[in-house]
Amino acid sequence: MTDNGVPALWLVPALPAAGALIIFLFSKFWNPRVAGRIACSAVGLSFLWVLVCSYMLITWPGEAPRFTQKLWTWLDAGTITADVGFLFDQVTLVFTLVVTGVGFIIHLYSVAYMRGDDGERRFFGYMNLFVAAMLVLVMADNAFFMFLGWEGVGCCSFFLIGHFYQKQENCAAATKAFLVTRLGDIFLLLGVLLCAKLAGVSFLDLSGFEKVAGMDSVPQAFGASGPLLLTIAGLLLLGGAMGKSAQLPLQTWLPDAMAGPTPVSALIHAATMVTAGVYLIARFHVLYVMAPVALAAVAMVGVGTAFYAATCALVQTDIKRILAYSTISQIGYMILGLGVGAFSLGLFHFFTHAFYKALLFLAAGTVIHALHGEQNIYKMGGLKASLRGTYLVFLCGAAALAGLPLTAGFFSKDAILWYSLSTKYGNPALFALGMVTALLTAIYTFRLIFVVFHGTERSHHHVHEPEPLLVKPLAVLAFFALFAGFLNLPHFVPVLSAKWEHFLEPVFGHYHAHPAGYGGKAGEALAALLSTVVSLAGLFIAWKLYHPGAAVVPVPAMEIGESETSTPAPYKASLANWLYRGWDFDRAYDAAFVRPFRRLSGMSSWVDRVIIDGVFELSAAIVRGVHSLLLAFQNGRLSRYALVMLFGALAGTIILFFGRGW
Amino acid sequence: MFPANEALILSAILFSLGVIAFIVRRNLLYTLMSVEIMLNAAGLAFVAGSAIHGQPDGQVFFMFILPVAAAEVAIGLALALLIFKRCKTLDLWAIARIKEE
Predict the structure, then answer these.
(1) Does the ipTM surpass 0.90?
(2) Which residues on B lie below 8 Å from A637 (Cβ)?
(3) How many domains are contained in chain A?
(4) What pLDDT, in 10s, does the model give residues A340-374?
(5) Which of A147, A463, A571, A597 is within CB 3.0–4.6 Å of A576 for a Cys-Cys bond?
(6) Domain match, A498 and A388 both
(7) Which of chain B's residues have a Cβ under 8 Å away from the Cβ of A642?
């Protein structure tokens, strides 16, 4: 506790950071199991402290309470200053609760999942470091300190994707993830610097992101170019969000990032890190409201990504890749929510998504674990009986993902869809594409369920019963996946409606868009009905296509034992294969960037070898030639030395006597 | 009357002989001898110069050259002896080749 009663906010990221430090420094002297225990307790304690902070924030007297805490000045460079300081408001509360809460459950799960792995200590060290960096990201009170956390999570993501570094593909996936997100990070840094320039010191000052005075004055201060500059800043920040949150066109790294262990996919590449872009845009909402073009770009990127990833998820055969694409798609929904001005609903979808997607990933991890590392869904099948508990929790997560009525995903997604139609930034096209995506989501979700858990068992492995720690923690997530939606019921419900929006009102205030037209509450109810119908229709279509015995859609031709990545074209239909390859983004990037870069590097290597090295080798050759020339004089032949001396003396004499007057 | 000019010419001839011997002979002993000849030629030139100018400096200088020459012979011969012990030859070119190897 500090003097004015504000809880010690720094303790929240410091606990997992300390855990990481202890694990890295000392755990090699202990049993590898200790590392897991330290990691769990560090994140657990951090979670408890977040609960304390949250309780104090909620019960804090006065309007719009927010805690800030400055530790020290980190950098002070003229007009740009940044502090090591923490901010705790309603947005931070949501993010820290999810990061530490879901993070704690995933850590618990990892203790069982990673047992016996060679890199157990390394794994838990980086997991704790990741949680610390993520907490810095969401708690930093200025954009520069946030950038530190932003890079920290990227780094830990890189290390954890490459956890099984013995395989070349995993290292390549880690490098790809790192490089692609770095590209976004460059945009983010440029955007942050532009914001600093636009707003002067105050915007990035101690008082945090909400200090909008600086931003509001931009149109006056910069005159006619003010709106343009704001739009550019907004687009740059969107570029940062694209990289981290795997939005079009920087989404290619996330499906490959599934090379990491499954808890990593659940924590980093589903629940927390990939939603950093959502956090970023929500934090800079003032900027976006003042730059409507940038906001429209956010909405289009969001809905486009949601649709894109849903189509790709339809045909994937790797259970983790399906979930990865669905993560991209769901983050697209969040970004869509932000892009239509419904900032609190974007965060609400983040909140519910964190639970059900972490749940789906962890349950998928249990399935993979039980099948000795098998990830191809067409080699699973009929696991309903042998993995009963896992099936049940998976079903909860899938229902939420597909948006079946009354689950968490239903409320959060439906609210975003309704706002995408009815706010002043929304339009029917966004709504329609969002609805189509919702249909696709329901189809691929239940395709997963039917292929993996129903029908006949196609696995050649003996399915062993998962240990309790791989199933029990998931029940908590399943509970939230089913019931977290009741935190924000639609407006037409008489009780508990829009609770979440009210809760976040101190942060977003009048910048938050509100529905207008389209029949008000009746229209909202109609939209909810429509999305109910859509999700049930998706379920029905999936049943028709993939229920045991249905053979409408051909099962991909895949040889038993063939690895997932080595078959770029498992289907007969070329459209399906195109979707399977993610709309050939990888190929396009390969042709547009990777190969030209290789050619360029080949050319520069030639320049280096032939021209640069040539210059140095030439000078070396000159020295060597002069050397051998001089060597001829020093041959130990005394008489030749004498001859040279004689001629030298003669020449000296001649110059001395006859050279006068020269 | 000391024939200074003739002495100078003799000195030049002696010095040239010494130089030529130094250059063409390969035996260390002959080389040492040619160095002696050159020293003495230089000494003769000093004496002749002293006579021409009517000054004693040149003769005094020859007095210094004599012990230098003696010392050179003493050390040179000692070295020649050692080199012969080691290389079994006094042929300078052969000795240079031995060094190279």
Answers:
(1) no
(2) 92-93, 96
(3) 2
(4) 988 888 899 999 999 999 999 999 998 888 888 78
(5) A571
(6) yes
(7) 19, 22-23
